[in-house]
Amino acid sequence: MLRKIIVFLRRKVRYGLKNVINKRDISRIGDKEFVVVANNCWGGEIYQWYKRPYNSPFIGLFLFGPCYLKLVSNFNHYMNQELVFVEQSKYPNDRKYPVAQLDDIEIQFSHYKSAEEAREKWTRRTERMKQVTNTNNYYFKICDRELCTVDHIEKFHQLPLKNKLSFAVKPLKSKNSNHIVMQESFRNEGKCVPNGVKTFKLTFIYYNLTKWFLN
Questions:
Q1: Dihedral through CA 176, CA 179, CA 185, CA 186, nearest 10?
Q2: Taking phi first (over 0 means left), then psi (-120 to 50 degrees means alpha), and beta for anything else, what does residue 29 get?
Q3: Mean pLDDT of 9-33
Q4: pLDDT tens-place string over residues 157-197
Q5: Which residues neighbour 26 within 8 Å (Cβ) at sequence distance 6 or greater?
Q6: Which site from 55, 74, 99, 154 is most exposed, i.e. has the minimal number of CB atoms within 10 Å?
Q7: What is the per-residue pLDDT for 185?
Q8: CA 155 to chain CA mean position, Å
């Protein structure tokens, strides 16, 4: 109970001081170069918070858990594949938006109206991303939404990637300071964390993102 009260108060303080905190974070991060590879809209919120241009194609879209794990397990391979749009997703999904394949994984362009728009922005932002050649400046995030299980997250943290962060409603078997277990009151009916936008807003309660980018 005490923990929930503390979290509630921290949310209120942060909301009231949002502009001050935002300016401070932007000042602290300076000109640090980073690329965010997220499984949903959480990544786009990062760029908006730090007022940076999108140098990652993983904006306005999401990947189902199995596909995201495949992507980050062999990132260079998949990012050099041609984006091929398909009529039907392999996942049970009746939402109306463009879906594309990179080799054997799918990208769900949930915030795009057409395949043409999705392709244009994916291509442009991928080119920007590839200009960042230092892999230590790539930051990967996963969460327990869209068929992503705790087992997927466990495997994610075993990958030889320098910067990894995860969110879930359940802890991992192995202790990991970069795995965030969200409080009951913020959970999506206890099944998973909230959508990417809301999870981003709650991230600061649990984790210092600016410090993560500057490590």
A1: 170
A2: alpha
A3: 83
A4: 999 999 999 999 999 998 899 999 987 555 566 689 999 99
A5: 50, 51
A6: 74
A7: 54
A8: 16
CB distance 37 to 141 below 8 Å: yes
Which residue is listed with tokens 């999506």? 188
Q: What does the chain look like in DSSP terms, one character per residue?
A: -HHHHHHHHHHHHHHHTHHHHHHHHHHHHTT---EEEESSTHHHHHHHHTT----SS-SS-B--HHHHHHHHHTHHHHHTSPEEEESS-SSS----S-EEEETTEEEE-TT-S-HHHHHHHHHHHHHHHHT---GGGEEEEEES-TT--HHHHHHHHHSS-SEEEEEESS--SS--TTEEEPPGGGSBTTTB---HHHHHHHHHHH--HHHHHT-
What are the residues whose beta carbons fall under 8 Å from the beta carbon of 166, sequence distance 6 or more?
Answer: 141, 142, 143, 153, 156, 157, 172, 176, 178, 179, 180
